[in-house]
Amino acid sequence: MAGVVGLAYAAFESAIIALTKRKNGTDYPSHLLRRARAKVLLDKYQDKIDVLWEVRNIDFYGNVKVGTEMRELSRAEVEDGLNAVEKIIEEVEKVLNDDTTNCAQLADWDHHGENRIS
Q1: I want to staple 70 with a disulfide (CB 3.0 to 4.6 A). Which of 31, 62, 64, 113 is the partner?
Q2: DSSP code of 40?
């Protein structure tokens, strides 16, 4: 099952690139900034984004973060990651297809992930 979540993460990131380009007119310069922006744009999916990030790191690097124990993903963790991506992409598609989304509010964030209003 190695690589499955990594591919799912690539699909997630592609969806977020499409979303941020639509909402901000530009892409973010790193996957960390894209993930942070995704958590703002898709706030009800923050937990799913966190799950995806964790399983992505284990799939890519063998651990959650540098210095932690190396391990492999369980089938359940892979399924959780895939389910998270599926739900997130469904929501991104809804937002991209909804012409009534408040783009002015979403555009209050600059391309570096900083809130310009705060």
Answers
A1: 62
A2: H
pLDDT at 23: 86
Q: How far apart are CA 61 and CA 36, in angstroms?
A: 21
Average pLDDT over residues 99-111: 49
Contact 17, 35 (CB under 8 A): no
Helix (H, G, I), strand (E, B) or coil at 101: coil
**Tens digits of per-residue pLDDT, 15-67?**
999 999 988 888 888 989 999 999 999 999 999 999 999 999 998 888 888 88
**Which is nearest to 4 in space by CA: 57, 59, 70, 65?**
59
Residue with tokens 């705060």: 118
- Beta bridge partners of residue 115, listed in sequence order: 109
Separation in Å, CA 76 to CA 8, 45, 63: 15, 19, 16
62 contact partners, CB below 8 Å, separation of at least 6: 70, 71, 72
* Torsion, CA 97, CA 103, CA 105, CA 108, rounded to 10: 120
